[in-house]
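Lab notebook page, bench 4
Experiment: in silico fold of construct C2
Operator: M.H.
Input chain length: 319 residues
Purpose: comparison with the prior construct
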Amino acid sequence: MAKMFGEMAIFSGRSNRPLAEAICKHLQLRIDEADIFDFPNENIFVQLKCSVRGQDVFLVQGLSSPVNRNIVEMLICIDALKRASAGRITAVIPFYAYGRSDKKDQPRVPITARLLADLIVTAGADRYMTIDLHAGQIQGFFGIPGDEFSAFPILSDYLAEKKIPNAVVVAADLGFAKKARNFARRLDAPLAFVEKRRIGNDPTAQAITLIGEVQGKNAIIVDDEVDTAGTLIEAVQLLQRNGARQIIAVCTHATLSPPAVERLRAAPIEEFICTDTVPIPPEKMLPNFHVLSIAPLLAETILRTHEGRSVGEYLHDTQ
């Protein structure tokens, strides 16, 4: 199929440049440079260092901490690309912030995940790509085409190679049951669930009940995001009380807000496995952390999107 747009160009914001560089390495391209910095009054300045007129531009910008700065920076970058006459702009968002604010579940609260999608479209993005949204309905918040990919084939392939004996996959909450079921099927392991309850707006949910059998088994806890690690630690303690042996934690997004690192350092977790959708600084890296890269996945899907080839065929072949 003939390309619909000009040459491919890849830009990176400041949130996760190492991932953008890894994507470019797979594509054998260089990152197109831009000056991005903060003025003393915290206003963000962006200037592209090359022409993008008519080009097929992919902007890599995750929305991890500092969340609000990274959101505004992404919007400003998109606006700069639009005003520079880019042919098409795809926002590559490895981690989508405000994913938990996906519905009006209390009186007089916003649906911030929808607001953020509207801002991205209004800024001028023509497409989006993201990894493991907290809730699938967020895809419907965008008024532009896009793709949500899952990192769980990457994570499950890594665990399959380890050949963990007598394993059981444990969904960190019932809302994650479907993805956990697919994970368990890939590992040919049984499935258990942690039922939890969140009290008010407390960021830490209380683990209530374990559904399934973990006695004497090696438990693999799976979730989309580990933030303060409160929910994860509750689940670990629940599994221990029910006789689980070795415990491995797996997630796509390791946002690791305080006091997550302290909690994980003290927890009886054999291995903590995540991806590089969110960069982990050296001071947060613990000896039992193992980070898998999503760069090959994003590089291939970016290339197929640019060339007008099917992304679905590639995902079907890898899952």
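Observations: Residues 151 and 297 are 8 Å apart (CA to CA). The radius of gyration is 20 Å.
Next step: discuss at group meeting.
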